[in-house]
Amino acid sequence: MACHNKEEKLVKHQEKVTNSVEPWPNLPQQLLNFIGRQHPDLMQNISFRGVTKSWRAAPKQCSNNSQLPWLELCDKNYYQSKTQQEHTVNISFQPGEYSWYPKRRYNPWTRFHGCSHGLIVAGGNDPAEYCLLIPTAIPFNSYWTIPPWDATIPFKFATLSEYPSNNCKSWSVMVLTGCSYPLFVVYHTGNPFKWMKQTSSLVDPNCSKRQLMILTNAIGLEGRFYAISLQGTLAVTEESESMFQVTKLSKSRAVPSVFSKHFTEYLLESNGEILLIFLISEQSTRKVDRVEVFKLQMDDLSWIKLDNLGNRTLFAGTNCCMSVNASQLGCRSNCIYFNEYATNTWMFYEMGSATILPCFDVYGSQTKSPVWEEPIVENNFL
Predict the structure, then answer these.
(1) Which of 36, 72, 274, 315 is the most buried (most CB within 10 A)?
(2) How far apart are CA 186 and CA 227, in angstroms?
(3) Between 87 and 225, whose confidence is greater?
(4) Residue 332 buriedness (CB in 10 A; 0-12 / 13-18 / 19+)
(5) Positive or negative CA dihedral for 104, 107, 108, 112?
(6) Is the peptide bond before 139 cis (omega within 30 degrees of 0)?
(7) How far is CA 281 from CA 51, 57, 233, 364, in A?
(8) 144-176: buried (b, 16+ CB within 10 Å) or exposed (e) per residue?
């Protein structure tokens, strides 16, 4: 009887481990297969994971109308997870033109901490060992080496400053720690093989409690890093005298235009622009009621709300996002396809009509895995 109970516990444990492995990237499989065959360069458009934030109303003794509510990370958020989320690549990547180091021993890279400019920032069983995986036809066949990590520092999220091509010999990796000390850590290929800590004591200007800044999301573009704080402040970070420093802070907040119970933000690059997608839950945390897209104005670091995406289509999965040219892929333009986290079903938001509609399969049923109709003639839709 005791032996039988042990077997049952072992089976339950194995099922728990299997269920905890999250497929990556969480985008329609047929879409990814089509991109992999026809447009492998679009894999560089995939960015890693959004950040879920929730509003917290100001207490009654601080009910000054001039004060905005402050934000907090939700319990479900990746940054507050007590366990390391394991992932599995569920697409066949195409070989890329990268410089690479052959794999000398087996290392199960199963924890993904970012995808940027075509490379995946991954960790293995050793908490000090991370790498930049190079997507190939055989997963995890080759990778860039990065310096050993100090396991006492949280490794929450990572992004690259730019695409490490043959013409770009100097690039950087930024790691967000999810805390204020250190604010972030950077490895720059032009410097010695080590991480540089940024021990900033910046107070978040948009925090009504005057707390130190905590960065929760970031993207690299043309050698700079654009990071968003917990309170929606945008911080520009760039190299100065062999050190990476915050050089600019936005005056306006990167938050939805409406009050909500919580929202998920996605930061991505699209046609040389930085976009911010908000999936907003106004009534229930299990349902997305509104979708908003903002574009960053580089001159004054302000955000303008977009009413039209033109010929672009945006995708927001549970763990990634991407922008594509609608005509190139033969899909519906000027809309955002997103995965509703609570129900794990795909929906799409039409920018023109400002409506949210479900995705369907070939039988006309709402589905968790929508069918991607590969284009045969122009103007084919999903």
Answers:
(1) 315
(2) 13
(3) 225
(4) middle
(5) negative
(6) no
(7) 14, 16, 21, 26
(8) bebeebeeeeebbbbbbbbebeeeeeebbbbbb
* Beta bridge partner(s), residue 328: none
Alpha helices in 43-159 (DSSP H): none
Res 381: pLDDT: 43
Asked if the bond preceding 69 is cis, omega within 30° of 0, the reply is no
pLDDT band at 323 (very low <50, low <70, confident <90, very high): very high
Of the pLDDT bands very low, low, confident and very high (cuts 50, 70, 90), residue 303 is: very high
Whether residue 327 is predicted with pLDDT greater than 80 in this model: the reply is yes
Tell me the C-alpha to C-alpha distance, in Å, between residue 84 and each of 25, 77, 110: 17, 12, 10
- Residue 105, pLDDT score: 42
- What Cα–Cα distance (Å) separates residue 143 from each residue in 92, 97, 118? 16, 12, 12
Answer yes or no: are the C-beta atoms of 120 and 132 closer than 8 Å. Answer: yes
Task: Give the pLDDT confidence score for residue 345 in this predicted structure.
Answer: 85
- For 225, the token pair is 């890093």
What's the pLDDT at 20? Answer: 54
Give the tokens for residue 218: 């970031």
CA dist 145 and 174 (Å) reads 14
Which class for 276: exposed (0-12), middle (13-18), buried (19 or more C-beta within 10 A)?
buried
- Reported residue count of the chain is 382
Number of C-beta neighbours around residue 304 at 10 A = 9
Whole-number Å distance between alpha carbons of 274 and 128: 32
Q: Look at residue 235 in the predicted model and tell me its pLDDT.
A: 97
What's the rounded Cα separation, in Å, for the pair 20 and 66?
Answer: 43
pLDDT for the residue numbered 362: 57
Per-residue pLDDT tens for 308-320? 999 999 999 988 9
